[in-house]
Amino acid sequence: MPEKSAIPEITFDFSEFGIISSYHDQEDYGLHTHNFIELVYVINGYGRHRHVDRSYPIIAGDFFVINTREAHGYEKTSRLRIANIIVAQEFLPPYLPLLRKIKGFAALFSLEPLFRDETSFCYKLHLPAESRARIEPMIDTLISELWKKPDGYQAACAGLLLQILAITGRAFSHKGSQPALADFSGKQEAVAQAIAFLESHSNNDISLNDVAVFTCMSGSRLSHVFKETTGTSLMDYLLRYRLDRARELLRAESRSVSDIAYTVGFHDPGYFSRAFKKHFGYSPRQTAD
Where do the domains of the chain lie, and which CATH numbers do they carry? Predict the structure, then answer.
C-alpha cells in the first residue's frame, strides 16, 4: 500500500456553487483522494474500483459513495462510463436532518463506505431498473443545469441532488439490501450514530459524554468501539472534520482566519492555526491566499 504522502489529492473550487457533475469515460486511474464527497453512478461498461489496497468489480447500475480523504481509483476498465456528482463537504449538513429520515441513507452514505473493505464491497448498491429509470433523467437534468446555469439553477440542482439521494437511500433499504442493514448493527451502528452526532454538532462544544448519551453507551465503551472500528479516537475524528471544513471555507470564502475558526468550532484561533498547520503542512493564511 502506498504511503499516504504519495497519494495525490484532487481538489475543486466550490466558490461558485457546492455541486459539480459530469459524465466521464473512466479509464484506469491510480489511487487518489479528494476534498469533496463523490457520488458515482455506473452508466455502462465494467471495471474494478480500487479502495485503499483492495479492488472490487463494478458494473452498469452500481451506485456508490466516496467520502473525503478516502483513497480510491479504477483499474481493468472496459468501456466504463460513469456519472460523477461531486459535492462540497459543507453543502450537505443543512439537509442532514431531512436525509436521515430516509431509512437507508446512513447505511449507504456512511456505513457502507466505512466498512467497505470489511464486507468486500458486497453491499454496494446495484440499482434496480425502476430506480435507474428514475435517476438517469435527473442526472441528465442536473448536468444540464450546471452547464447552462439558467436563472435559479442552484435551487434546481439542490432539489435534484436531494431526490437522487432519496431514491438511492430507499433502494438501499429495500428487500435486496436488508442483509447489509442487518450486518451494520451493534458496534457499526454505534459508530454511525457517533459520526452523525459529531458532524451535525461539529461547530458546538462536544464532550465524550454528549456523544455517549446520544448513542446510549458508556463513554469508555464508546471510545473503545470507535477506536477499534475506525482506527482513530472520537476527538481526533472531530478535530480532522473541523479542520477539513475550515480548509473548504478558507478556499471558498473571503473571511478572516479567526472568523472561520470560530465557525467550525474552535475557540482559540492560535490553537486552530497550529492544529491546521500540523495536519495539512501549511498555515490557514496560505490556504486563504
Answer: 4-183 (2.60.120.280), 187-288 (1.10.10.60)
